[in-house]
Amino acid sequence: MFNKIRSWWQNINENYKRIILSVLFGITVIILAYGIYYVFFRAQFPSATREPIERQPTGTLPPTTDIREILRERGIQVGEEKPTLPISGEVTLPDIIAEGGKTLAVPAIYSGADSVTLDPEGNIAYYSESEGKFYTIDSSGRIIEKSSAVFKNVSDVSWSPNGDGAILEFPDGTNFFYDFARERAFTLPKEAQDFSFSKTGDAIAYEFITENPDNNWLVVSAPTGEAPRAVEHIGESNTDDIVVEWSPDDTKVAFFRSSTGLTSDEVLLIGKNQENFSS
Asked: Is the pLDDT assigned to residue 176 strictly greater than 90?
């Protein structure tokens, strides 16, 4: 048999011999590699055994263990009675009217309030933009009309410190002082801006600004616009450098910022009688 194989092998073309030898060599390498892996490197996995799972009834939670049983297993003495919460005293409702104890407080929500202030009595005064009216909220929370007059589209409100009047400004430049006690309106100049009341509310200060710088002045007058008096010439000064604010001591009506260098400014205090106070 070997002679036949040898004779067959000798008669085969040399190219075929190379192919056959290459295939046999590859098969031999694969067999050897698998044998080495199987003997030395194959992981030994223990056979997994499944423990039976105790199924709970459908739609129920697993039963809970009483905490007392756990404590007993740990050698702790526990009584048979279940603990109960201490019973508190009677529940008392808060009083509707304050009588020294708990009082029921009903939250009050006010919408549309603008230009809010406090009057001397501590009541809240405000302008309702949606209704165009002025209201007061007293200490008990009642909303009271300050006036039946309607003022639509008020752009700014300057309140008098005594609470009985306010200066109303409108987008078209119209300005007037309204006296709530007398329910009367007093027209102020359209050129007036940046109003400020004195501490007592019996006078106002404002900027009088026109297209002609020669007519631009800081003015003091009555809230009704009567008895106007020019205090300081503004001229071509930038109105952003002027702050009209009546001082608490009733002697100064405005602040003026003046540049004294590249990085320094000086603030001058303008008195109501044309005085200039250094800062």
From this structure: yes
Domain membership flag for residue 144: no
Q: Which residues pair with 259 in a beta bridge?
A: 265
The tally of domains found in the chain comes to: 1
**What is the spatial distance between Cα 135 and Cα 116, in angstroms, rounded to a whole number?**
10
Q: Is residue 34 scored above 90 in pLDDT? A: no
φ/ψ (deg, to 5) at 270: -100, 120
Residue 23 belongs to a domain: no
3-state secondary structure 24-59: HHHHHHHHHHHHHHHHHHCCCCCCCCCCCCCCCCCC
Q: List the one residue out of 176, 268, 187 whose CA is nearest residue 231.
A: 268
**Range in 19-28, 60-69, 78-87, 202-211 with the lowest mean pLDDT:** 78-87
Contact status, residue 95 vs residue 105, Cβ threshold 8 Å:
no
Domain presence at residue 195: yes
Q: What sign does the dihedral 231-233-238-241 (CA atoms) show? A: negative
Q: Where are the beta strands (DSSP E) in the chain?
A: 113-118, 124-128, 133-137, 143-145, 156-159, 165-169, 175-179, 184-188, 192-197, 204-208, 217-221, 229-233, 242-244, 252-259, 265-271, 276-278
Q: What is the pLDDT of residue 83?
A: 52
pLDDT in tens, 178-188: 999 999 999 99
State the residue range of the domain holding 255.
Answer: 189-278
Measuring CA to CA, which residue among 123, 153, 117 is closest to residue 136?
123
Give the residue ranges of DSSP H helices in the chain.
2-11, 14-36, 67-73
Does residue 225 sit within a domain? yes
